[in-house]
Amino acid sequence: MSETAYSPVSQHLSDLETAQEEGRRKMDWALQHMPILNALREEFEAEQPLDGETIAMAMHVEAKTANLVELLADGGAEVAITGCNPLSTHDDVSAALDTHESITSYAVRGVDDEEYYDAMHACLAHEPTITVDDGMDMVKLVHEEYPDLIDSIVGGAEETTTGVHRLRAMDADGELHYPVFAVNDTPMKQLFDNVHGTGESSLATIAMTTNLSWAGKNVVVGGYGQCGKGVAKKASGQNANVIVCEVDPRKALEAHMEGYEVLPMVEAAKKGDVFITTTGNRDVITREHFEEMQDGVLLANAGHFDVEVNLDDLDDLAVDRFEARDGVEGFEMADGRVLNVLAEGRLVNLAAPISLGHPVEVMDQSFGVQAVCVRELAENGESYEPGVHDVPDDLDREVAEIKLAAEGVEHDDLSDEQREYMGSWEHGT
Known about the structure:
Layout: H1 16-31, H2 35-47, E1 54-59, H3 63-74, E2 78-83, H4 91-97, E3 103-105, H5 113-124, E4 130-133, H6 137-145, E5 155-158, H7 161-172, E6 179-182, H8 187-210, E7 218-222, H9 226-237, E8 241-245, H10 249-257, E9 261-262, H11 265-268, E10 274-277, H12 287-290, E11 298-301, H13 311-317, E12 318-325, E13 328-333, E14 338-342, H14 348-351, H15 360-380, E15 387-389, H16 393-407, H17 416-422
Parallel strand pairs: 1-2, 1-4, 2-3, 4-5, 5-6, 6-15, 7-8, 7-10, 8-9, 10-11, 11-14
Antiparallel strand pairs: 12-13, 13-14
Helix pairs in contact: 1-3, 1-4, 2-3, 2-15, 3-15, 8-9, 8-15, 15-16
């Protein structure tokens, strides 16, 4: 592997051996509950589909992700990885990953912006043939500062909603010069990771960080995409009163038909006890909303970047800022109200001090899709034109079949007659 100016995680930790042991313990626990990755590991180890590939990754470096990274390395790849969020890395897991002879981990928790991108530059110095991204920062960096790599990169895979939005905008501008699979948009990701994963992990993290109950609270959900639906569904299931704020009239109508109260954010601001943003957009909650909020509200973000709750506006209004609790910062207003921000406005289910991210079983499915997409790029990447691509349906179904088999769940198949009927236009009344 190439030498780089930015050091791997092993150079940043004082008690490296202890960190490695603890990280491995976390990874082993997660792997016990990841039947999809275990099944794929057997295949990858036997067939070495990634032999000769170099993979650069920017992901949330924690135990579940680490098992995906090791799967790719065990399938023959050389892997360089760093974080995609300054507060989501688990240093012990990063250290454990770095012990693998085919993996270099540059991920360190709590880095500043300069260090964040230094680590990404270090990954790209390995001259990847495949990129795996969560948020699109690495793809953007390749195109802006490493154009010479583009010809040798066969393709990439993007994990999350925000990243896919950015990629599609880049593609529409004619600026995306290699193929990238929109992993986020495939059914095995949308139906489970975004709904159940985001919903469960966000609410669990907020409850553990604050030690507060959901029952009876007015929970305002900003955005009713798949993540917002998950948050709303899980909050309602814990006896909260859910209010949805949405800009798309169809999604607003869907939320209304699901039984939720639908309001503009300026009106919801007057009623909410907890605010959770899930849009992937900026300025969902701003000054005009802060001015209407009640004393003691909680402000949390479950979107990718820390721009959904406008902290600059909040800081301008505040006469004091203080640590209210580990992972909670209080902003005191001139009238004495305190508005509480969780995890610095970053992705709450990964950036809060005690957060663990999505449930293991959910991420097993999403990372299974990532793994088969990387395999597809290694084997057939030359058949894809530059741009954003849907995950091939047979790959998504492959992951679902592995999961069902692991759970001992059987299902029906179409007969030849049914298949012919569904594929014909000639059958009528």
